[in-house]
Amino acid sequence: EPEVTQTPSHQVTQMGQEVILRCVPISNHLYFYWYRQILGQKVEFLVSFYNNEISEKSEIFDDQFSVERPDGSNFTLKIRSTKLEDSAMYFCASIRTGTGYTFGSGTRLTVV
Amino acid sequence: GQSLEQPSEVTAVEGAIVQINCTYQTSGFYGLSWYQQHDGGAPTFLSYNALDGLEETGRFSSFLSRSDSYGYLLLQELQMKDSASYFCAVKLDNQGGKLIFGQGTELSVKP
Fold this sequence. Notes:
The complex is a heterodimer. Chain A is 0% helix and 51% strand. By secondary structure, chain A is an all-beta fold.
């Protein structure tokens, strides 16, 4: 079964540093997303991406965040200057159409 | 604002049936999904209801009442491996719209 692949699985970074989280969505999917989940809390929407541009973003997705689809396969989330409160699990997801989103297994980001 | 309410935890025994309820108040509504998450891993899609009524997929069923802004996930013949967190999530539009998740229900299945 096709998978959404995320790397790295764990990332530890110092406060103020830039991080790039990488995702390879399912190849024929059209819509791509980043969600995050702070430990023990619900999954929160960050941003959606369609047709090579952001289609929607949440209040969490401020100027410190950016997304790119640099080639036909990768989809990245960049956090320019990490804060302690950015520590969370970050999930990439994709969907072609329909109802069932496929999530990656996540990147656990720890900001120290 | 957007809110989805579900119980924080439920405990049941192997072989039993358990129902996890979800009520929602959202700015839009296209359908209600259910996702399973083991130990903070990838949320896995279980089921989806766009219309009122019951959808059955093996041991799992999901129900929706749009007029009541209410749905539930029914798990039958519980197995130990069903111990996980279960999230309801509202899909806000027909296209690739975002999902709004509830806080999750932690299900513990006991022998």
